[in-house]
Amino acid sequence: MMGMAVVVFVALLASIALMAAQGMRRRARIRRRMAPVMGLLAVETPATAAVSARKQRGEGRNSLIAWLDARYPLARGGRTALVGLVGGAVVFAVLVPVLGFFGLSYAFAVVAAGSLGGAFAWNLASMLEAARRNEFSNRFLVVLEDMQRMVRYGIPTQQALKSAASAADEPVSTSLRNILLETEFGTPLGLAMDREARRVRVAELSMLAAVVSTQSATGGSLSESVDNLARMLRERLDNRSRMKASTAESRITIVILAFVPFAAIGLQALTQPELVDVLLGDARHLFGIGVALIVAGLVISWMMIRGAQR
Residues with Cβ < 8 Å from 201, sequence gap 6 or more? Predict the structure, then answer.
């Protein structure tokens, strides 16, 4: 039982460390993508920035919904948190009797199941937000190409953006409507795009904000600049698709390896049920250690593949 507890504890620490490292890498990657264009954008006055910061801190302190919306701006914070909590509760309800069956004490089983359920809930919410951000990038390219065509034929930039927002799908349409709403109150278009890009943490929108701000300050062909940006984003999406295709074999391998032990136990139960009785009886502690090691290896492999895809 002590060996089983040590394995579960080590697997728990490893999963938490991997998820924390993955989150830090994701934030660093977003900052790295947005850093080259930040200097080209219009800057808020110190007074406006201070008021905005105080407002955001106040909302974060007084409202959990505001914090969730800031944490998951594209996946809708409340709904994402609810899905994560439900998933974590299911994992907790399943793991408590399973860990108890493998010989852990009830208190340790509750603590371990609660920790793993919380880690699963946090990771599930992050996955939903990442999927929504990828969806934003895919649909934003279509909006960018439509906007480039309208600007090339002489339509004003703000009118082209309004037409693109009316035809865009979620979650891009909401961000474009927020940008247009700010411009109606006198905010420059580039600055409104920059604020929305910081809110949703999407590098592609930040790049468009830099293009619009540079064009409004120095002049030049906006159509050509947007076309170059659309071409670059198209190449990035193609690279992402190729990376996903190159890791397909690894993902299939993980799925097969996940089912092989259970298939082997099922076959053993049909041919030699007395051995399975021993495995699930006197040797259940060793069986639990083996299951914990297999699950830990599969989780680590899956997170490595997802990191390579990004």
Answer: 30, 73, 133
